[in-house]
Amino acid sequence: MSKYYDLKDVKEMAGGDEDFLKVIVQTFLEEIPPDVKSMNEAIDNSNPSLAYQYAHKMKPNLQLFGLELMEHVLTIEAWSKGNDKEANARKSGERIATKVHLAQHQLKKDFA
Q: How far apart are CA 65 and CA 72, in angstroms?
């Protein structure tokens, strides 16, 4: 089964402490999906500054879990600064939501 995430950096951060690793995963599961939802609502409501706040807040966690979504986060940040189109931000938000959703379900299975 292919993984929708990569725990290499998470494991390095946890330093072999399995309980800490589980806390990091649980924190991701509790915080990131609602933030993605709020970010996409901000995009849908043409609120670039709020979308930027959520995208920027999630950036380290998306990287930590190896989701390879940086270009999409940067697109949303660029839109918020007037350097990209809202349609591109919307597509990037959808891509982030899809990948986080897949990772979320895989993480729940793997850490149940």
A: 15
